[in-house]
Amino acid sequence: MKVEAVELRIVRMPLRFPFETSFGREDAKHAVLVRAQADGLVGWGEVPAMAAPLYNEETVQTAWHVLRDFLVPALLGVELQHPRQVRERLRFVRRHHMAKAGLEAAVWDLYAQQQGRSLRELLGGVQDRVEVGVSLGIEATVDDLVRRVEGFLAEGYRRVKVKIRPGWDVEVVRELRRRFPDVPLQVDANSAYTLEDARVFEAMDDLGLLLIEQPLGEDDLVDHAKLQARLRTPICLDESIVHPHDARKAIELGSCRVVNIKAARLGGLTAAVETHDVCAERGVPVWCGGMLETGIGRLANLALASLPNFRLPGDLSASDRYFEEDLIEPPVVLEPDGTIRVPEQVGIGPRVRLDRVDRVTVRREWVRVG
Ligand code: OSB
Ligand code: MG
């Protein structure tokens, strides 16, 4: 298979509810969509970067530049036997994992369609539905947060994750625990603390949390190991794990007991599966993280989350948790048992509604051979 042409688009999708984390507030989801053509087929991928480099160093603009000027030209016209070869082909570009992941995803979708198979089958997924939860941002008041949690529990979500930051942490989580004694609950600090704040996490240690996600610096496996040694609650790393070998090192050092897997952060589905395997071999459970993806990225996440070592509910919610109208049809929906079905159709599954993509596109360009 040879990719003949790629259309890049920057899209801006208004969020139904603003999403605030320790690094900032988002009112819209920005993404780069990658639409790749080969043999009369079209494959889609998503770069779920943000408008600003707050989660990691990438933005939709850096992804646009790196895709347009380096990654896409390196892939066009190249004979590919399997999408796993994309990673090697793009290795000459340092980092820019989200940009790489979006392009690789489009090739996975193309290849799966060409083979007449679902992405889930190709990746080695074994579950036909995955357990999911909801990730809640920082709200104006604890009462507002409690009301939002009530709403999502009523919709059928079975696991709740809340964002924390200094000043919005122990008291908030304690109150949630008091109001929802039995709900599987976890927190995500997005790197907002240092080891000097260890007492914050010690104070959360009796609240029966499933895990504490990325409390410390993204480049700091050592202090995470020191913190983990002081806690019974598992630490889960997100930002720190950008390569499968980071997972191995974090596990060997004792920096975490759970790993969050995002194909975007790791540079693609190939690296995500490899990270899954590294963790599985060491008996460390993983779960699928999210970046408020549009339906396009969400479908790939669902396929990934069906692999066997995804043993905790993912940050994968239904389309209507994020958007008035998703880019795919049918949208992603929550089943009454708190799971989401993994699509069985070829490729990523549901079709992409180009008319809706057009309406949210703010920039577009074709990149072709020559
Ligand atoms: O840290 O997991 C994170 C969203 C944007 C950037 C970082 C994160 C998140 C989420 C959202 O928590 C999860 C979702 O997609 O529902
Ligand atoms: Mg996180």
Quick tags:
binds 2-succinylbenzoate, single chain, 36% helix, Enolase-like, domain 1, 15 strands, 370 residues, alpha/beta, 14 helices, binds magnesium ion, TIM Barrel, seven-stranded parallel sheet
Q: What does it look like?
A:
It is a single chain. This protein has helices spanning 60-75, 84-89, 97-115, 119-123, 142-155, 170-179, 198-204, 221-229, 244-253, 263-266, 269-281, 295-304, 319-322, 354-360, and strands at residues 5-21, 24-38, 41-47, 129-131, 134-136, 160-163, 185-188, 212-213, 235-237, 258-261, 286-288, 328-329, 339-341, 351-352, 361-368. By secondary structure, the chain is α/β, with parallel strands linked by helices. It has two domains: 5-116 and 350-368, Enolase-like, domain 1 (2-Layer Sandwich); 121-341, Enolase-like C-terminal domain (TIM Barrel, Alpha-Beta Barrel), CATH 3.20.20.120. A seven-stranded parallel β-sheet has the order 5-6-7-8-9-10-11. Strands 3-2-1-15 form a four-stranded antiparallel β-sheet, with helices on both faces. Helix 9 packs parallel to helix 11. It is globular. The structure holds 2-succinylbenzoate (OSB) and magnesium ion.
The CA-CA distance between the termini, in Å, is 18 Å
CATH homologous superfamily placement of the largest domain:
Enolase-like C-terminal domain
Strand order of the largest sheet: 5-6-7-8-9-10-11
Helix fraction, binned, reads 25-40%
Average predicted confidence as pLDDT: 97
* Structural class based on helices, strands and sheet pairing: alpha/beta
Strand content: 15-25%
Return residue spans where pLDDT drops below 50 for at least 5 consecutive residues.
none
What is the N-to-C order of secondary-structure elements (H for helix, E for strand)? EEEHHHHEEHEHEHEHEHEHHEHHEEEHE
Number of helices: 14
Q: Supply the CATH class of the largest domain.
A: Alpha Beta
Small molecules (ligands, ions, cofactors) in the structure? 2-succinylbenzoate, magnesium ion
Total number of strands: 15
Characterize the largest beta sheet: strand count, sense, and whether it forms a barrel.
7 strands, parallel
**Structural domain tally:** 2
Q: Which fold name is given in CATH as the topology of the largest domain?
A: TIM Barrel
Shape: globular
Radius of gyration: 20 Å
